Amino acid sequence: MYPYMPVLPGVETATFPIRHNNDIHDTTQLPTSDIVVIGAGPSAMDIVQEACVTHKATNVHLVARSAHWGAPDMWWPWLWRLGWTELHLFRVLCRILPLFYVDTIMHLIHLFWAIFHGVPEWRPPHSDPASSKVGYILRTHLVLPYKKGQFKIHNNCGVKLIDGDKVVLSNGTVVHPQMLVAATGWSTDSSYLPGGSKAGEYDSLAAADAPRPLYLRFYDQEYPGIFYISTAAGFITYTENAAFLSQAVNQILRGTWAPPSAEEIQRNLKDVVLHHICLPGLLQEDLEQAGFKDLRGKDVR
User: Fold this and answer.
1) Which PANTHER family match (predicted)?
2) Which residues contact 250 (CB under 8 A, 6 or more apart)?
3) From CA 227, how far away is CA 161, in angstroms rounded?
């Protein structure tokens, strides 16, 4: 049991499997229908995207205790190709405007996105400003499955009770899931990989110094949306795209990935964190120069 696994009432009576997102290493581990996903951060979006887009699953329920902020990860494709992500925009605005105005601008951007795409559950909450809850988690890839009815969003909601084969949500919805996934974050647990190890004290950006034997996935709360790979040499390189990471791990396991030098990794990491957080165009160039080949762009699945 993960320390960040939520305690759900009646969990001991469940007749369906309950997994943490760290336990899901392949899309085929997910059912093709009737899935409850708890959470609304990057890990929850990963699970819903893999279920609905990759696995074509139906009747997926995304349950979030509070409405999350979030401009989409592909809000305007032409801006993404120029490197203007929502996190980059947030950083730039914070440098030139008072925080109140930044929050107002981000609120309007998120509101426009939700209205334009017709996803009312992704309208920004009024209770918290963007600056206090910077979790950019919406996925443009999920708009089509949402409109097809493949998944539903339950905001300001939680699991009230698990009773055998059913889950009762606090909004009164009753679901009979084939699986419940608690998507409450990624960690440095790589025990499922050859030579991997359990998560421990390095579940943070400090994992750059972690003595890890292989490569693993996690994200730092200070920079949501950026995923890191901890290398055997004890250094990390970066990617804000989960697809990049999957390809990297596959190349590593096949023995076709040439790791960059420690100096190169440190230079690239410092540059991306200090100067252009989450710029996918620049990230892709840096990753390819560092040894990652044939990477897909953010808007390609």
Assistant:
1) FLAVIN-BINDING MONOOXYGENASE-LIKE PROTEIN (AFU_ORTHOLOGUE AFUA_4G09220), FLAVIN-CONTAINING MONOOXYGENASE
2) none
3) 33
